[in-house]
Amino acid sequence: MSKFQLSRRQTLAGLSAAGAMSVFGAPFSLSARAQDAQIKAVLGIIRLASQAPSFIAMERGYFKAENLDMEFKYFEAAQPMAVAIAGGDVDYGVTAMSGGLINLAEKNAVKVIGGSLQEEKGLAGQIILASNKAYEAGLTEPKHLAGKSFGITTAGSSFHFMAYKIAKANNIPLSEITLRPLQKVGAVVGALTSGQIDAWAIQPSIAKKMIAEGAAKQIGLVSDVAPDYQVTTVFTSTKNAAEERVKTEAFIRAYSKAIDDYNAALVDKTASAEEVDAIAKFVHKYVEMDLPFEQAKANLVNGAMRINKGLALSLGSVTEQLNWFKDEKMVKDTITSEMLFDTSYVKTI
Hints:
Layout (H helix, E strand, L loop, with lengths): L1 H23 L2 H10 L2 E8 L5 H8 L2 H4 L2 E8 L2 H9 L5 E4 L3 H8 L3 E6 L11 E5 H5 L12 E4 L5 H12 L8 E4 L3 H9 L5 E4 L1 H9 L3 E6 L11 E5 H6 L1 H23 L5 H12 L8 H10 L12 H13 L9 H4 L9
Parallel strand pairs: 1-2, 1-3, 6-7
Antiparallel strand pairs: 3-10, 4-10, 5-8, 5-9
Helix pairs in contact: 3-12, 5-6, 10-14, 12-13, 13-14
């Protein structure tokens, strides 16, 4: 009987406390309700190995653990992804800064909130390639690019910026290199393979595959001309950055956990062979699915680049990119760093 009375007292006390918290709006009640319903979110994806943390976070349940019901939406280039984020169809994107993204920031539609892929001395990084035809004709080093053609997806893309950095490092006016906008990465691969363009620079997972297949020749490294280049950034809508802080911080935590897994397995090589296999299998579900696993794994391992811990942002590099876009008259001179970057979410380096 006493046992029943004690249990009853505890129950009543619990109900009383719950009622009080309901009246006074205690955070416990709110957080319990929040945990019951996951927050829907959409992440823009380009099917590249550099997006590996997106796939790891999805497959290992890191998004779900942060109460995010995450959906992937696929794109072929950075600019349309930025437009989708500004329009509210996509919540987050991890890709290169583009002129379109910066112009949307000027309209107070998007914000860069973090950094992802970055060049680092000592790692292969992005590779400068020449077509076999151009290589045989003497394009064996970047200093020979004057008078040659260089593939880009769109004007104002990361490929455009890399062409500028390569030209500047080799004292070549960019006007002496013919830029060929081909819209999609796949189209640039095809054009270089067939000799329709002379040169390109791309992430090592793609470049090393092309070299191994005899489709192109390596003539240099982007890290030699831009050693601290912030290749990709994390961005979201201005509305998300300002009004959805809980959701955005949850996304950053989940993604950061996946970055740690990626860097340990593929960059720092401190993980076990079993862990490397596991990471490769996650990525293979989304990238190079047409290849046998062992070949896709080799491409991933050989092409790994550093992804910034905690999505830290290289403010110097992205500011340089912003200034370049201004100098090239692709964005307005009036666009400021404050319009483009929200540095309240991650560490800046």
